[in-house]
Amino acid sequence: MNKHNAAKPTLIGIGEILWDLLPTGRKLGGAPANFAYHVKVLGANAAVISAVGEDEAGRDILQALNRLGVNSTFIVRDHRHPTGVVTVDIDPQGVPAYCIRENAAWDFISFHPEMMTLAQRADAVCFGSLCQRSGESRSTILKVLGATRKQCRRIFDINLRQAYYSPSVIEESLQLSNVLKLNDEELNVLAEMFGLGGSTAIRISQLFRMYPLELIALTRGRHGAVLYTPSAISECGGFPVSVVDTVGAGDAFTAALALGILSGASLDTINHRACRLAAFVCSQPGATPEIPAWLASNIS
């Protein structure tokens, strides 16, 4: 992002917001919220559309977002359901396993007209599949996406978790998106789901033919990432770090990806910055660690 441009872009994360219960303690989580946090750290305007319970955990989330400077105006307070929590176990390689509780407040994100106004001025919206396990939240997500401008970057960070997705949800989400972010395992799931064959490159080309996608980001863990457009490819190897856990690394990657796209940076520059930020997050506990100013300034 051009630091001399006074008009900061506005990016939205819509979907789950929750507390990750990690071995190291409770950390703010939920992919859309993590995305918004990193967007804010990198210098843009960030907002979250989600829901929390009328409970202490929900109040703590709102206070945390306010401290971080992330707009929480569009987070619904739900008196019927508790604030979401996820139990996270970390294996020796730092890879998380999630136990996601059902009937959390973020499963019931009620739609409010003010969300339309936010959507209409958004430069990018990031959403995933998990929050669409609920009909009410899915309806709100679809309304928000439908209200965005044609030039808005609608980023589908597929984020498959447990069995909380279906071919119909994935299909409709891809039709509404112009940017897709997924990892190797998720590409394999899509290949089986939609009958994609051949090498990775062939599968990617099939996705471009099937859906109105302008960019596909394929993350590969410690091996970095590959960015594809219909006419170009950028490969970036991973940055070696001592991994604490990989929670939220993909969301940090998506934030840097989104801002790089909006700034008009080259594919290689975008990929390098996104992989660098993701690697740093892997070296810290939780999804929303403090990002050093020197790193944020070199990515934004």
Please outline what is shown here.
The chain is 38% helix and 22% strand. It has 10 helices and 13 strands.
Overview of this protein structure:
- There is one protein chain.
- The chain has about 300 residues and is an alpha/beta fold.
- It has one domain (about 10-295): UDP-N-acetylmuramoyl-L-alanine:D-glutamate ligase.
- It is about 40% helix and about 20% strand.
- The strands form 2 sheets. It has a 9-stranded mixed sheet, with helices on both faces.
- The radius of gyration is 18 Å and the shape is globular.
- The model is unreliable at about 1-5 (pLDDT under 50).
What attributes does this structure have?
single chain; alpha/beta; UDP-N-acetylmuramoyl-L-alanine:D-glutamate ligase; four-stranded mixed beta sheet; 10 helices; 13 strands; disordered N terminus
Q: What's the architecture, going by CATH?
A: 3-Layer(aba) Sandwich
Largest sheet descriptor: 9 strands, mixed
Helix content: 25-40%
Q: List low-confidence stretches.
A: 1-5
Radius of gyration: 18 Å
Strand content: 15-25%
Q: CATH H level: which superfamily?
A: Ribokinase
Structural class: alpha/beta
Number of helices: 10
List the helices and strands and how they pair.
Layout (H helix, E strand, L loop, with lengths): L9 E5 L3 E5 L2 E5 L1 H11 L3 E9 L2 H13 L6 E4 L5 E7 L5 E5 L13 H7 L3 E4 L7 H13 L5 E5 L9 H10 L2 E5 H11 L5 H11 L4 E5 L5 E4 L4 E4 L12 H15 L3 H16 L10 H7 L1
Parallel strand pairs: 1-4, 1-8, 2-6, 4-5, 8-9, 9-10, 10-11
Antiparallel strand pairs: 2-3, 6-7, 11-12, 12-13
